[in-house]
Every structure is written in C-alpha cells, then in structure tokens.
Specification:
Keywords: Membrane, NAD, Oxidoreductase, Transmembrane, Transmembrane helix. The chain is of the alpha/beta class and 522 residues long. Helix content is 37%, strand content 21%. It has two domains: 276 residues, 3-Layer(aba) Sandwich (Aldehyde Dehydrogenase, Chain A, domain 1), CATH 3.40.605.10; 194 residues, Aldehyde Dehydrogenase, Chain A, domain 2 (3-Layer(aba) Sandwich), CATH 3.40.309. It has 14 helices and 22 strands. The strands form six sheets. The protein has a seven-stranded mixed beta sheet, with helices on both faces. A five-stranded parallel beta sheet has the order 10-9-8-11-12, sandwiched between helices. 51% of the residues are buried. The model has no long low-confidence stretch (mean pLDDT 96).
C-alpha cells in the first residue's frame, strides 16, 4: 500500500484507498456464508457446534458459520501451548522477531480484505476499519523492535565486592509459559493482535479466544499467524462463550498469565481468580472507561465541538476511550451546545460500506437493547435530550442496528454519569468553574482517557490534576480518543487497568516476563 495509515493521517485519504477498499468489499462478499475452523496445535480444526453470525448492518446478511470450541478442544489448545513452550522459549530472539515482522507484512498485504470484513462484522466505517488493521500490523513491528532494542530486557549488574573471588551478577527476564489472550468485540483485531504479539515476542506461547460477537476477525488474525509459519502449538485460536470457554481458560492449570480487554465487572473477576489458587499469576486487564472532557470558559469552541463529536460518536461510542461525560463552563455552554447540535445533524449515518458514511450501526443486539433502556431515563429527573435519542429504521436502515447519536443535558448526580454505556450517548453538565469540572471528572471508579479544551494555564492545570492514563488537550481530532502505537501509550488508572502500565509503552513487554537474578562465582 502506497499510503501509510495512522489515525492522524486518515482524515484526507487518497482515491487509491477507496478504490482498493471497494474492490475488497466485492471480494469479501463472495466468501460470505462459509464455515470456519479453530486453529489448535498448528492445525485448523472443525467444531461440532457452530454459531451463525449476521451483519449488524443488515441482519439478513449472513457472514458465516463460526466454530464454538468445546471443553475438550479448549483443553487441547492449552496443552498444546504448554507443550510448545520449552521450544519457543529457547527460540533465538532474531527468529521470534522475524516471525512477528512476517505477521505484520501479511496483515498489510491483506489490509483491505480484513478491513472489509471488519466493516461487515462490527459496523465500523472504512476508515475506522482500515485504521484498526494497520494499527495491528504496527503492534507486531513495534513490539519486535522494542524487544530487540532492549536486548530481551537482560542487564549485567556490578560484581559482588568479594575478596579472592569474582562474583558476576545479571538480571534476566524469562517468559511465564502458556499465555491466554481474551479479546473484546469492539476492536477484535487490534486488541487481540497487540497482546498476542507481546506474549509471543517475549517467549510465551498463546491461546487466543475471540469475542463470540466477532469471531470472523479472530479467524482472520489466526490466518495471518498460521501463514507466518509459527511452530505448532505456539499460537492457538479458539472461539467460545466467556462463561464457558473463557472461564475454563482462566481455571486451566496450564494458564501462566492472561491479557483481558473488556468490562470492569468481568475483568475484576479474572484479576481475583488469577490472584488466588496455588500462587498468584499475572493478569493484564484493560477494563473500560467513563471518559470525561472539560471545556473551560477560555476554550476554542469550534475545536472543542469537532473533538467532542469525533470522540463521543465515532464508532457509535463503542470504544473504551469514547467520550461519555462533558463538563462545560456555564458561560460557554449554550454556544457549545449550538455547535454540537449543528454538527450532529450533519453526520452521515448508514451503511458503513459506503464511502460517504461516517457512522454505522451498533455492533451487537445487546447494545441496541441498552440504547432503548437508557433513553427513557434521559427524559426525566431534570435531564433532557438535546439531540438524537431514537432508533433509526427508515429505508435501508430497517434491518440494521442503527441509532441516532444522542446529546443529553443532566444534573451532575444523574446515574448515567457513572454507568459505562458503550453507546453514542454524551452526557453534558454545566459547571461553575474548572475546579468543579475537575472534581466531577475525577469522581469515577474508572480513569482511562480524558480531554480538556482551554488556554495554556487550563491545560497545565488539567494535566496536573486529572486522574486518567491517556490525556489530550485542545485536540480537534478527538477529545478523548485516537491513541496510536508508537505515539500515545494506551492504559488506564483506577478501575480502567490492573497494572498501571500502558499498551505500546516503555513498560508493556516486561509484564509478559518475570525477573530472575543470576549470580555466578568464579
């Protein structure tokens, strides 16, 4: 591909991108309805039970029939990963990084077909889908580069000051073993590929379970790893329900560590389970956000409105980094609301396969039900809907999961200011000053991303006081969204993350290893 995709550059793509994406849609459409397989111990394996998945764009469009692993197959995958661990751990760094870069190459070669599948499966528009797939390729390259740059995180230490002996010391990082990766439905390619790459490059073997809402993306990632040539058992792909297969993976005695991305409730249960048992095992859990943006009286309101729209309603608010809470100085609230409502009315909502569409459907039936459940509570108790608030059923939208982006104003104690909705609903609250805004922004058990619009003094004050792991100021590209590997590490504080370390940061890969101190006396 002659055009390098990042979240920052995709706002003005060349015509070539659209031509290639449209061609990929035609190609992918010809494969719909196929029956897919698991990948265990180097072999594609059929399942007794399959799950027929349809597109959220039009539920009459069958995407395919996807395998549901049974308990025996999940145990087989864990045993294969455990068996392969010794050989993979001993594989030289150069070979492990070579295979990761081969995966990145394959992803980029297939970027348009994978992105077209993502659009059909998740309902992302083409730019969001292409961005996610390119981001995944970048994860594989960045983690290979990072591991080599740190020489496997091994360090020589000073000799002990012993008379008559030479006592040489060294700190060595070693992989844990069979590592489980459990991915979410909203970024089913990137938030699977990133932790898979990190676990593999550090010498762990992997059992990856896709979200049951988005198994196609998981299978396409598995194809790239299979075709890259990893030894049997080093990478294994499963699909199955969390309460069954996911729970089995958490409890399996071969599970040495887990990376989980999903809700706070489920993530907390996994963290507790991994901390109990015969001994604590590592768990890297990214558990969502209830992200706030502060707009001060000094803000550039046009820039703020752009960033709020993009972060609040991009991908239908189905991002853990999506803007959900908006605290606006009362002096500028009416003007900002006017700008937001005007921009919301101009959004193109519809089939995300079309070039002109900005917002597609909700990804799941559960999201659609939740939208219908939340909207009535925004029409009472002192709250009001300023724009949106309805399901969209007109014309071609009738058979999809489409809803209108919604802006609601409510008092600060409204319960939806605390609940992670994962929907295109932004809650607005007027505040007296920035101090009140900060108190409200930090009054959450979650702390993933946050944004601020204001002058230089506001920005410095915001960074010093906000309780969030990913922070943005005066960003028209997105008030709280848009982190990219190599540019913005991505991780949360408080209930948004279990480790305090961010994805694609200086500290991420070391979490997949444990330290061993080695002393040799000569």
């Amino acid at each position: 591909m002659s055009f390098k995709l990042t979240y920052a550059t995709m706002f003005d793509p060349p015509a070539e991108l659209h031509e290639r994406f449209d061609a990929a849609l035609v190609e992918v459409a010809s494969t719909l309805g196929a029956t897919h397989a698991l990948h265990i111990d180097g072999v594609d394996i059929t399942a007794v039970e399959t799950d027929t998945r349809s597109s959220p764009i039009d539920e009459r469009r069958i995407l395919g029939h996807f395998p549901l692993a049974d308990r025996t197959q999940a145990q087989h995958a864990m045993a294969a990963a455990q068996k392969a661990f010794a050989g993979w751990r001993a594989t030289p760094m150069a070979e492990r990084t070579r295979l990761l870069r081969r995966v990145a190459d394959l992803i980029e070669q297939r970027i348009y077909t994978i992105s077209a599948a993502l659009t059909l499966e998740v309902g992302k528009n083409r730019m969001e889908a292409l961005g996610e797939v390119q981001e995944t390729a970048d994860f594989f390259r960045i983690y290979a580069d990072d591991f080599e740059r740190h020489d496997g995180f091994e360090h020589a230490l000073p000799d002990d000051p012993l008379s008559g002996f030479r006592s040489r010391n060294r700190s060595v990082m070693r992989p844990y073993g069979a590592w489980v990766v459990i991915a979410p439905f909203n970024f089913p390619f990137a938030l699977a590929g990133g932790p898979v790459a990190a676990a593999l490059v550090t010498g762990n073997t992997v059992v990856f379970k896709s979200a049951t809402d988005t198994p196609w993306s998981g299978r396409l990632l598995a194809d790239c790893l299979r075709d890259a040539g990893f030894p049997p058992g080093v990478f294994n792909y499963l699909n199955g329900h969390g309460k069954d297969i996911g729970q089995l993976l958490v409890e399996d005695p071969h599970t040495a560590g887990i990376t989980f991305t999903g809700s706070f409730a489920v993530g907390s249960r996994i963290v507790r389970a991994m901390a109990s048992g015969a001994y604590p095992r590592p768990c890297i859990a990214e558990m969502g956000g209830k992200n706030a943006c502060i707009v001060t009286a000094s803000a550039d309101l046009e820039r703020a409105a752009l960033g709020i729209i993009r972060s609040g309603f991009g991908m239908g608010g189905q991002k853990c980094s999506a803007l959900s809470r908006l605290y606006v100085d009362a002096a500028v609230a009416d003007t900002l609301i006017e700008k937001l409502v005007e921009k919301m009315a101009a959004l193109r909502i519809g089939d995300p396969c079309l070039r002109e569409t900005w917002l597609g459907p909700m990804a799941t039936t559960n999201a659609l039900r939740n939208f219908g459940r939340y909207i009535p509570s925004l029409e009472d108790d002192g709250s009001s809907i300023l724009a949106g608030g309805q399901r969209l059923r007109e014309g071609d939208l009738e058979h999809g999961y489409f809803v209108a982006p919604t802006l609601a104003e409510a008092p600060a104690d409204h319960p939806l200011f605390r609940e992670e909705m994962f929907l295109p609903i932004v809650m607005l609250c007027r505040v007296r000053d920035r101090e009140q805004a900060m108190r409200l922004a930090n009054d959450s058990p979650l702390g993933l991303t946050a944004g601020c619009y204001g002058d230089d003094d506001d920005v410095a004050w915001f960074f010093e006081n906000i309780e969030a792991g990913v922070t943005y100021a005066n960003r028209p590209q997105g008030a709280t969204t848009g982190a990219w590997p190599g540019y913005q590490p991505f991780g949360g504080w408080k209930g948004s993350g279990s480790t305090g370390k961010a994805i694609a940061s200086f500290y991420y890969l070391a979490q997949y290893q444990r330290e061993q101190s080695r002393t040799v006396v000569e």
